[in-house]
Design brief:
two-stranded antiparallel ribbon, Arc Repressor Mutant, subunit A, 3 helices, 2 strands, mainly alpha, about 45% helix, single chain
């Protein structure tokens, strides 16, 4: 059964996955802030939401510790052109 998440949440999950593939580590919140062109509190809120919904896990207090719980096959393609809220 595929997980359910909003389109916006799916884009964050896809970004986390792609960033990890390209860089060999999880993105920092600042990386997501730059990519999505949103405020730091908005990124942090999304991370908390994804964690609360069981889509990611992270080690509190440790940088770049985000791990996807969702299998990559259930992720949408990352769409850099359609980042509207």
């Amino acid at each position: 059964m595929s997980p359910t998440y909003t389109e916006r949440q799916g884009q964050f999950l896809a970004f986390i996955h792609q960033y990890n593939l390209l860089n060999g580590c999880a993105p920092a919140e600042a990386d997501m802030q730059r990519f999505f062109q949103i405020t730091a509190p908005s990124v942090h809120s999304m991370i908390l939401t994804l964690e609360k919904r069981g889509l990611i896990c992270r080690v509190h207090g440790k940088a770049r510790s985000i791990t996807l719980i969702v299998s990559p096959e259930f992720l949408p393609p990352l769409n850099a052109l359609n980042l509207e809220d």
